[in-house]
Amino acid sequence: MTLGCLFCSLPGEEVRAVAELCSSTEPPEMEKLDMNASKEESVCHFSENKLYLSLTYSVVFVLGLPLNGTVLWSSWRQTKRWSCATIYLVNLMVADLLFVLTLPFLIITYCLHDSWIFGELLCRLVRFLFYANLYGSILLLTCISVHRFLGVCHPLRSMPYRTHRHAWLGAVTTWALVLLQVLPTLAFSQTAYIEGQVICYDTTSPENFDQFFAYAMALTLSGFVFPSLVILLCYSLMIRSLIRSEEILTRSGQAAQAKSIRTILLICGLFALCFVPFHVARTFYLIVSFLTAQDCQLLRAASMAYKMWRPLLSMSTCLNPILYFLLGSSNRVRLLQKLRQNKVAGQPVAGKGETSRGGQIWVLPK
């Protein structure tokens, strides 16, 4: 029997009693969320471009998952001991993969018109992993830059410090610093009930925004500005050293110089494309929200700029595997060998002593 038929079978007074009961038994959590919504009536609200956000995050997920997975698989299968740069890059891929795995939650949310259906815990976790990936990537790229700087400008004096032990120590220290930096996001991130649906705040609720603004500015300085200055200093000194030694380089020295130039171009390009525009747009948005919260036109422009660059920042998870692939010829060779071995394993087995088409002898794994 349906609910409507059940109500039809009740007397008139009992129907009215059931209706009053249903209308008065609202969950306590829903009442609390409604109170939050009532506090925000004076705040500017404007819709996001859900199609742009969902499509961009979908592209990042489709590209980032196999790229980072392939790099980690190739590194795990590697029998040769990892170099210091590989240690940093593998940690970078792990950070990227953890973030990429959260993207389906954001894609579904934007497809549902910003309605968050996954609960409070996942809301906090998704926001936490976004910032952990962002500032973990920046610090790990800083470690790579410092390592390359020591190898180019102080090759002999820095040898005791450019070891696998120090590389792992640097990676562990990076993760510890990142956790300390972004741990407050677990407290600031939360859900709220607004305009008939549950949302997951990208920053924090309006009543906590003043505290979040101070935290966000400190995080930008410690997690982005300071590491960026370190990278700029390292690369400025590297370029000066490379220019001075250009005329006396041997063939091996020219190869090392080319590798250093690739590192400079790739990391600076990554910062210019992803990290710098995002932090400029985000800082502008936070300052406008803090100083002129009632100027809806200016706030709308700042919000559009911030939310345009936020998914583009995630493209760094697709570019970091390319960084791994291009930083060293050994990485390229190992990856191509693995892919070629898989292709060979899928070929039909030739007779013993026979050659395959093209005159090459296939060596099949035992």
Structure, explained:
- The protein has 366 residues and is mostly helical.
- The chain has a domain at 50-272 and 314-335: Rhopdopsin 7-helix transmembrane proteins (Up-down Bundle).
- 73% of the residues lie in helices and 2% in strands.
- The protein has helices spanning 3-8, 12-24, 28-39, 50-77, 84-100, 103-111, 119-153, 164-182, 185-188, 209-244, 251-291, 296-313, 316-327, 329-345; strands spanning 191-194, 197-200.
- The chain has a two-stranded antiparallel sheet.
- A hairpin with a 2-residue loop joins strand 1 and strand 2.
- The radius of gyration is 27 Å and the shape is globular.
- The termini are far apart.
- Mean pLDDT is 79; it is low at 1-42 and 349-366.
State the share of residues found in helices, binned by percent: over 70%
Q: What's the CATH C level of the domain at 50-272 and 314-335? A: Mainly Alpha
Counted beta strands: 2
For the record, the CATH architecture of the domain at 50-272 and 314-335 stands as Up-down Bundle
Poorly predicted runs: 1-42, 349-366
Given the helix and strand composition, which structural class is it?
mainly alpha
Q: How large is the share of residues in beta strands?
A: under 5%
H-E string: HHHHHHHHHEEHHHHH
Radius of gyration: 27 Å
How many DSSP H or I helices?
Answer: 14
Mean pLDDT: 79
Main location: membrane
Subcellular location: Cell membrane
Protein name: G-protein coupled receptors family 1 profile domain-containing protein
GO molecular function: G protein-coupled receptor activity
